[in-house]
Amino acid sequence: MRKRSTNYNIIEHLTTVFTARVKFNETDPLGIVWHGNYISYFEEGREAFGRKHGISYLEIHKNKFTTPIVNVVSDYKHPLKYGDVYTIKTHILNNRTAKIIHSYEIYNQDGKLVCEGQTTQAFVDLEGDLSLYSPDFYEEWKKKVNFE
Amino acid sequence: MRKRSTNYNIIEHLTTVFTARVKFNETDPLGIVWHGNYISYFEEGREAFGRKHGISYLEIHKNKFTTPIVNVVSDYKHPLKYGDVYTIKTHILNNRTAKIIHSYEIYNQDGKLVCEGQTTQAFVDLEGDLSLYSPDFYEEWKKKVNFE
Amino acid sequence: MRKRSTNYNIIEHLTTVFTARVKFNETDPLGIVWHGNYISYFEEGREAFGRKHGISYLEIHKNKFTTPIVNVVSDYKHPLKYGDVYTIKTHILNNRTAKIIHSYEIYNQDGKLVCEGQTTQAFVDLEGDLSLYSPDFYEEWKKKVNFE
Amino acid sequence: MRKRSTNYNIIEHLTTVFTARVKFNETDPLGIVWHGNYISYFEEGREAFGRKHGISYLEIHKNKFTTPIVNVVSDYKHPLKYGDVYTIKTHILNNRTAKIIHSYEIYNQDGKLVCEGQTTQAFVDLEGDLSLYSPDFYEEWKKKVNFE
After folding, report:
1. Angle at C85 between CA C43 and CA B79, to 5 degrees
2. Cross-chain CB nearest to C40 (options B25, B47, B56)
3. pLDDT of residue D70
4. Which residue from A1, A4, A69 is facing B118, i.e. has the nearest CB?
5. Looking at the partner chain, which of A23, A47, A83 has a beta carbon nearest the beta carbon of D58?
6. Long-range contacts: C103-109, Cβ < 8 Å, 24+?
7. Given CB 3.0 to 4.6 Å as the disulfide criterion, which of A90, A100, D9, D45 pairs with A45?
8. How far is residue A123's CA from residue A129's CA, in Å, rounded to a whole number?
9. What is the b/e burial string over C104-128, where b = at least 16 CB atoms within 10 angstroms of the residue's CB?
């Protein structure tokens, strides 16, 4: 089972911060955010990253690729409750494969780390075939943003 | 980041099978099940496990504990589409810690493996304190079902 | 605001019954099913209706139409709790417009009515235009199932 | 089936505006926001209303009441797509019953009305009994904000 590869480096200058508020319907009978909803928080962070750095879902789609998630890891440290405001720090990780790897840290309003996660995305073309090479548009994007 | 420990053994005779149908609102603009919804499928599998073997959320609650998820890992192999029927095999893993570790395999109606995952749960008492020891009721349950 | 038209008749012989179990992540901090999730229960009922009577989303799509929801009404009578098993009765209503109107009753395992609802769907063609007339394929379906 | 009572008046000076962005996992295979997710948007609007005017869920809870939703109506006018930014206008309606009635208008980034809705909430005390009278704390709140 694929896991967080600690030898991949975070590209520091691309880290993106996004803040939102826990919704009532995200919490469970224990009064805390249901663990599956953090996957949606990671996506919020990833989308904010994409909008900021010009590599959003719609951008990728325009280049005739999709980037399905092939792996998610989430470590829960501390609960978020209804009314809490959380901040997601989204990083992108340097790696030699045809993959996009993000890591995430979620903090509550007191700056306490509540969750850490990682997602891995593959490149799939419009025929549904997995790309073994990083597509041209993605390599160009990496140059533009001084990735690595 | 905690990951699937391959040296933990599956307790074969406790494996539980649950079958359901992909819902329209679980699918995304790509026409496939949104990756975060598999966390909910794992929970369906875990709940079926709990009902079958007498260790459900309500059972645990009656014993004055909750078992929050502290780690999730999910590996996506193949998409599920609207209309697909999926089967979740839920296993429980032998481990020497005060944790409940489940692993999951999800298959589509053609028997193809679409997703593998793992969840780890800790024991927390009513004061909100993490239990460093496996609670008595859980040890009794393990004896009853010939766990390990 | 469009509402349940009490002068529309239920086509009794097409009523479809679907039973499922409340999921943990459908309940809220009050320990009851979050009200918005009943919209998903209505959809479960509507999909069971479509599968049984040959008028599913995929059937409609094959005929080059979509049937977006234009109105939902939901009346909550009694809460559903975690662990409850609910049964959805889905009806279709006779009406003279180019609309599909379903009504729903949801019962708990004791046969108590917990929720009543209604949805209205319009026919939209592949160009995204609203159809003012009931499409041929739908009229043929109505004849086949002795609708009205 | 309860519906929008057009003889209830909007209390204009209490209207609250909330803006957010459509999330990827809120959209369906048609590429538009799944209709059930608007119930969550109404809740976002209602929570923004509560925070602004001091009548939030937590405020109500402190006064030993809950206010479950007893009726929802939603009229869909125009789809929201992935990437759209929507604005919810939340109103509160004057009414002589022991109920909280909100109405909602949702607009897209071009100012086009995409959805209208209404929710009705009852007062339930900690014993789970429906209150036939508007509780004291709610009447005091109404005075404080010049409701009616």
Report:
1. 50
2. B25
3. 97
4. A1
5. A83
6. C103/C4, C103/C10, C104/C41, C104/C42, C104/C45, C104/C46, C106/C38, C106/C41, C106/C45, C106/C80, C108/C78, C108/C80, C108/C84, C109/C84, C109/C85
7. A90
8. 8
9. bbbbbeeeeebbbbbbbbbbbeeee
Task: Find out whether B35 and B74 touch, Cβ atoms under 8 Å.
Answer: yes
Residue type, A22: V
CB contact under 8 A, C24 and A29: yes
Report how far residue D101's alpha carbon sits from residue D3's, in angstroms, rounded to the nearest whole number: 11
| Residue B129: count of CB within 10 angstroms of its CB | 9
Q: In tens digits, what is the pLDDT along chain B, a chain of 148 residues? A: 445 555 689 999 999 999 999 999 999 988 899 999 999 999 999 999 999 999 998 899 999 999 999 999 999 999 999 989 999 999 999 988 899 999 999 999 999 999 999 999 999 998 989 999 999 999 999 999 998 7
pLDDT digits (tens, 9 = 90+) for D129-138: 999 999 999 9
**pLDDT tens column, C24-35:** 999 998 889 999
> Alpha-carbon distance A15 to C110, whole Å?
53
Query: Over chain C, what is the mean pLDDT?
Result: 93
Put simply, the answer to whether A23 touches D47 (Cβ < 8 Å) is yes
In the block, tokens 């609670």 appear at B135
Question: Which residues, other chains included, contact D122 with Cβ-Cβ below 8 Å and sequence gap of 6+?
Answer: D67, D68, D70, D98, D99, D130, D131
Token pair listed for A87? 């901040």
D25: left (phi over 0), alpha (psi -120 to 50) or beta: alpha
Residue C45 has what pLDDT? 98
Q: Which tokens is D6 given?
A: 């057009």
Provide ipTM, 2 decimals: 0.93
CA distances from A130 to A66, A73, A122 (A): 10, 21, 7
Nearest to C53 by CA among C45, C63, C61: C45
- Give the separation between CA C107 and CA D32, rounded to whole angstroms: 31
Interface of B with D (CB under 8 A): 24-25, 27-31, 34, 36, 82
Residue-level pLDDT at C3: 52
Nearest in space to C74 (alpha carbons), one of C43, C35, C110: C35
Cβ contact B25–D34 (<8 Å): yes
Say what the pLDDT of residue D6 is. 56
Distance CA C33, CA C71 (A): 22
pLDDT in tens, D69-121: 999 999 999 999 998 999 999 999 998 889 999 999 999 999 999 999 999 99
Query: What would the two tokens of residue D78 be?
Result: 């125009």
State the nearest Cα–Cα gap between B79 and chain D, in angstroms.
14
